[in-house]
Write a structure and sequence with these properties.
- This protein has one domain.
- It is 56% helix and 0% strand.
């Protein structure tokens, strides 16, 4: 994994944690800054980035992108578009 992919994964983990915390939080977190940081990290991905990862990120399939970056792509279920 290169540094740009690691930055995307880091942002995805922050997002995942924030979403998980929403179940019990009395005040819902503002996800906009996290999503903005994710967009910045995605914009820094180099040419030649895995097409599967770019597909997941373009479709905002954040969990699938996270699993892909963690080497767990086989856990991704097929989506409506025919991709896992």
């Amino acid at each position: 994994m290169n540094a740009a992919e690691q930055a995307v994964l880091d942002q995805l983990l922050v997002l995942d944690s924030a979403v998980a915390g929403m179940r019990t939080a009395s005040a819902k977190p503002d996800l906009r800054p996290i999503l903005a940081g994710l967009d910045v990290a995605i914009g820094r991905l180099p040419p030649g980035t895995a097409p599967e990862l770019l597909h997941y990120l373009h479709k905002r399939s954040h969990e699938k992108a996270r699993l892909f970056l963690q080497g767990r792509d086989t856990e991704n279920a097929a989506g409506n578009c025919g991709h896992r």
